[in-house]
Amino acid sequence: MSVLPDRISNQDEISYYEDKTWVQCEAPGCLKWRLVTGADLDQDKPWFCNMNPDTLFSHCSVPQGAFPNESHLQKHGLKMVYSLMPVGSFVLVNARCWPRWPAILCPDPNEEEYARLGSDGYVEYYHVEFLGKPHTRYWAAAKYVEPYSIPFKKPHYRTLRGAIKKSYEVAMEEATKVKEMGCQERLEMCHFRPQELLAQAQTLMHSIDRMLKQSPDQTESQVKITD
Ligand SMILES: [Zn+2]
User: Fold this and answer.
1) Distance, CA 2 to ligand 1 centroid (Å)?
2) CATH code reported for the domain at 2-81
3) pLDDT of 108-139, one tens digit each?
4) How far is the CA of 86 from the centre of ligand 1 (A)?
5) 62 CA distance to ligand 1 middle (Å)
6) Which residues form the CW-type domain (predicted)?
7) Alpha-carbon distance 142 to 119, whole Å?
C-alpha cells in the first residue's frame, strides 16, 4: 500500500511530497507507514521496512513517524493506493458497526475474480468470505481490508448478541486454524466456490459414491486410486 499524488490542489503541499511516497510495510506484525524518498517502487511486489533506503526507518522495530490521516491526504490532492494482496490471503475487514471480522480473499463465485481494480489500475474492492456461522461473502472496499496481523487481540464486544455473537465466536475459533494455513488450503475451505470447481467436486463425489456401491470389497483400493 502506498500514497501517490491524485489531483493537484495545493502546489506547496505537493512539492513537499514530490519524490516521496508513503509506503506501508506488509509484514503482518508491523504494518507501519514509512515516508520513502526517491525509491523505485514496484506496486506489484510486497514492501517491507528493510527495503527503506532511509536507514533510520529501515527496521520493523522502529516506531512509525507522523502519518497523516486519509482525509488530510485527500485535501492535499493525494490518494492512498493499496497493494494487491494475493488470493487466499487471510484478512480482517472493518465493516461499519461490526468488530473487525476475519475473512479470506477468494474469487466471487459468479465473476471468478477476487479483486476489482480502479481506472488507475490499483485495487479498489476485494471479494471476501467471512468466517463464522454461516460463512457469508461480500465485496469490501480495499481501505477496509487489512492483513490479519499476528498480535490481533480478541476485543470485547458487549454489543454483540444472539446469533451474531455466536457467529463471531465461531469465526474467532476458525481464525486460529486459518491463520496457520497456506493460501491454497484456505481457498479449498471456502464455502463460496466458482461453479466449475463445485461441479468438479460433485462429479468426483458421485464417482466415489458409485464405486462404493458397485464393489464393496474393493472399495478401499479404488478410493485410494481416485485420490
Ligand atoms: Zn515493518
Assistant:
1) 14
2) 3.30.40.100
3) 988 889 999 988 778 899 999 999 999 999 99
4) 19
5) 8
6) 16-68
7) 14
CA distances from 127 to 40, 110, 150 (A): 29, 11, 22
CA of residue 49 to ligand 1 center, whole Å: 4
ipTM over 0.95: yes
Q: Do domains 2-81 and 90-189 have the same CATH topology?
A: no
29 C-alpha to center of ligand 1: Å? Answer: 8
Distance CA 70, CA 59 (A): 24
Could you tell me the residue ranges of all domains in the chain? 2-81, 90-189, 195-226
Name the residue type at position 166: K
Q: How crowded is the C-beta side of 180, counted as CA atoms within 13 Å?
A: 4
User: Which CATH fold topology does 90-189 show?
Assistant: SH3 type barrels. (2.30.30)
